[in-house]
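Postdoc handover notes: sequence design on the structure in folder B. Input tokens:
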């Protein structure tokens, strides 16, 4: 701001020249300056008063609007809530291939306490313990009478429990809405679904998150509101799953097995129609993971068909025969010398129970399950080509089956793949895989030679992957597997009308800390059916089976896994829409003549 001098030199000199008093000029300038200062102070004060008036007007307007809104709304009990982002509650349903509910949501309530608002905390604690016997009365009393301002009592309660708590009538005991995950079929398909739990929680909402199975694998999809609550449709068939679990449980008990698993897979689409692992659990009340012990299979949470990585035994022999035929080294009728002795380095290769089958065809090598026969085929194939073939069947990587547990089922390969490994792997020892890997391998034989990836999602039409063998090779392998059932080690596996084809496998069970048990085995029966038009693959595995038959204790798959698989096929084939093929009756020997 430019200030005017009180004694301007030009005006002073001019006044003196005219004989006037220069002090008059100074007094006039001082007066004018004071007038300007008063005008500026008045304008500044008026502006401040205007801003203050507008502030009070807005404040009283907001208060008046809020009072009017409260006066016209219904009275509600105030609820304590933590500040922060809102909690998403809705979660999409999970349904089977026919749209039947596997997992859905249920509206319920939680109950919590605000001790400062309680009237009679001791009486309230006593009544709460009578409603929820698992609560600790002494701890409740300490919490209610202490310095705590908030505590959960129960995260989920039933309508009956809510009414009982409401009848206590204490204003310090309050309810919050909850959305809980409900599995209406209980234990059915528990290892597929996995389970869920609460993530972020507030008194007015709780976030439901997946903790295992498809619930965790597809957690983002199930929680995404952009999907418009569109359900997640799986490839499972609820009725088939129920039949499989019922028969498998009965078979496990009859065969005195520690555990069991079954995988039913469409050989052309890769859809897993049913997958069961026993013992199981109820996802509505999922148990906690074990915190001690060396054997994970002791827990019901252990998923045997993807996490159960074992040497599966003679079920691998058909892969050796198929590759040898694919390479043109042999055909189904080529004679193989299976007589002994046979040694790889210092390790002898023997047969089950010391048998000697002599010179037999490749088909009979599979029918009689000859270790030496497949071993000699494997030596012709060679280690490198054997690895390439098994890799093409998906035997070296975790199965792509879409549940989180599948990533933990990584096959175990030998560190050094020499001649000995080539021979032992040819009959299912030295390479550990899961039943789901085996299902994908047998699907390639059943569908004419294509690899198909096992999936838990609903698919439309065939989903063929790369070709791993010719159609002619697959047909010959199918015929060999059929003969195993009609003439070989799986004679208990035939089901009238469905022409079952398959291969048995009995392998010594490994110890958790290394080595093998002398009296414990993993018994497996891998089947394709119906053999005349293969559509499905069924893998049945029993953990430590043992049955007394004809006065002897028997553990091999032909006596344990095979009868269970046969009963399963008889039960589920009609549910899958497969009609039995009836053998034509012999015509009467009547000759029609005319006169």
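Designed sequence:
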């Amino acid at each position: 701001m430019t200030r005017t001098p009180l004694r301007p030199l030009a005006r002073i000199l001019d006044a003196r020249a005219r004989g006037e008093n220069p002090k008059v000029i100074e007094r006039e300038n001082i007066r004018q300056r004071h007038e300007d200062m008063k005008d500026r102070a008045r304008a500044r004060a008026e502006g401040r008063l205007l801003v203050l008036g507008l502030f009070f007007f807005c404040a009283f307007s907001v208060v008046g609007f809020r009072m009017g809104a409260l006066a016209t709304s219904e009275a509600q009990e105030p609820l304590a809530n933590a500040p922060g982002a809102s909690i998403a509650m809705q979660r999409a349903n999970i349904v089977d291939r026919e749209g039947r509910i596997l997992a859905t949501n249920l509206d319920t309530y939680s109950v919590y306490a605000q001790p400062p608002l309680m009237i009679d905390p001791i009486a309230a604690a006593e009544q709460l313990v009578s409603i929820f016997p698992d609560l600790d009365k002494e701890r409740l009393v300490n919490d209610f009478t202490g310095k705590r301002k908030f505590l959960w009592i129960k995260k989920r309660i039933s309508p009956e429990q809510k009414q009982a708590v409401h009848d206590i009538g204490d204003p310090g005991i309050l309810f919050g809405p909850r959305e809980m995950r409900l599995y209406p079929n209980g234990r059915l398909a528990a290892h597929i679904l996995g389970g869920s739990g609460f993530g972020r929680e507030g008194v007015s909402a709780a976030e439901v998150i997946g903790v295992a199975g498809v619930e965790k694998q597809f957690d983002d999809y199930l929680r995404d509101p952009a999907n418009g609550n569109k359900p997640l449709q799986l490839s499972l068939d609820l009725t088939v799953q129920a039949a499989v679990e019922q028969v498998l449980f009965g078979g496990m008990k009859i065969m005195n097995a520690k555990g069991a698993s079954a995988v039913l897979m469409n050989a052309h689409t890769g859809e897993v129609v049913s997958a069961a692992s026993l013992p199981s659990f109820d996802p509505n009340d999922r148990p906690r993971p074990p915190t001690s012990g060396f054997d994970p299979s002791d827990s019901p949470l252990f998923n045997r068909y993807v996490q159960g990585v074992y040497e599966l035994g003679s079920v691998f022999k058909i892969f050796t025969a198929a590759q040898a035929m694919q390479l043109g080294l042999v055909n189904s009728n080529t004679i193989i010398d299976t007589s002994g002795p046979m040694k790889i380095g210092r390790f002898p290769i023997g047969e089950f129970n010391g048998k000697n089958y002599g010179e037999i065809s490749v088909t009979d090598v599979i029918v009689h399950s000859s270790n030496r026969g497949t071993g000699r085929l494997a030596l012709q194939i060679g280690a490198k080509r054997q690895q390439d073939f098994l890799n093409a069947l998906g035997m070296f990587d975790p199965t792509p089956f879409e549940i989180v547990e599948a990533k933990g089922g990584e096959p175990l390969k030998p560190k050094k793949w020499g001649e000995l490994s080539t021979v032992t792997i040819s009959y299912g020892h030295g390479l550990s895989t899961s039943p789901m890997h085996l299902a994908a391998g047998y699907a390639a034989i059943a569908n004419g030679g294509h690899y198909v990836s096992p999936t838990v999602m609903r698919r439309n039409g065939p989903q063929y992957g790369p070709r791993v063998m010719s159609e002619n090779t697959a047909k010959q392998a199918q015929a060999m597997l059929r003969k195993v059932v009609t003439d070989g080690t799986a004679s208990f596996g035939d089901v009238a009308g469905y022409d079952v084809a398959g291969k048995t496998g009995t392998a010594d069970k490994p110890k958790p800390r290394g080595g093998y048990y002398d009296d414990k085995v993993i018994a497996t029966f891998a089947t394709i059916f119906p053999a005349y038009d293969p559509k499905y693959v069924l893998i049945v595995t029993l953990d430590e089976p043992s049955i007394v038959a004809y006065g002897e204790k028997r553990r091999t798959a032909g006596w344990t896994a095979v009868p269970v698989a046969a009963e399963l096929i008889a039960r589920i084939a009609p549910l899958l829409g497969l009609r039995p093929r009836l053998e034509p009756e012999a015509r009467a020997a009547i000759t029609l003549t005319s006169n």
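Context for whoever picks this up: The chain has two domains: 94-135+148-233, 240-576. Don't rerun without checking with the PI first.
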